[in-house]
Amino acid sequence: MPLTPLDIHNKEFSRSFRGYDEDQVNEFLDQVIKDYEALIRENKDLANQTVALQERLDHFTNIEDSLSKTIIVAQEAADEVRNNAKKEAQLILKEAEKNADRIINESLTRSRRVALEIEELKKQASIYRTRFRTLLEAQLELLNNEGWQSMQFDQKEEA
Known about the structure:
The protein is built from three helices and no strands. With about 160 residues, it is mainly alpha-helical. The chain starts with a helix and ends with a helix.
């Protein structure tokens, strides 16, 4: 069991014939008591400081843990946002490709329809030219007909 300042203060020494000077011993013991009390106070102060520093360390450790968890959560959220953005971009691309395919298909269908209409118009134009040529040839034949020429001579003679 450690000594206390009170134990030192209450310590009694037996007297002997040629013993130490009692005043010097008491003075020395008083000095030992003061130093011992100062050491005990300092030890208590250091223990209190240690407790306070340990509490601060625990507090900062908790803050560090919270910050680490927050960083991890933020990183996970950023990863999730990035993944969602990639998925959304892929969906937009797929939708754009679908629209592009639809527009291309519509354009091809329209161009086929226009090509068919052009072919039909070419056929009709060819038929029209053939009929017109036939009509003109028939009219020329009538003009070149001898009956027509004889009518012309008859008119010149009368004139």
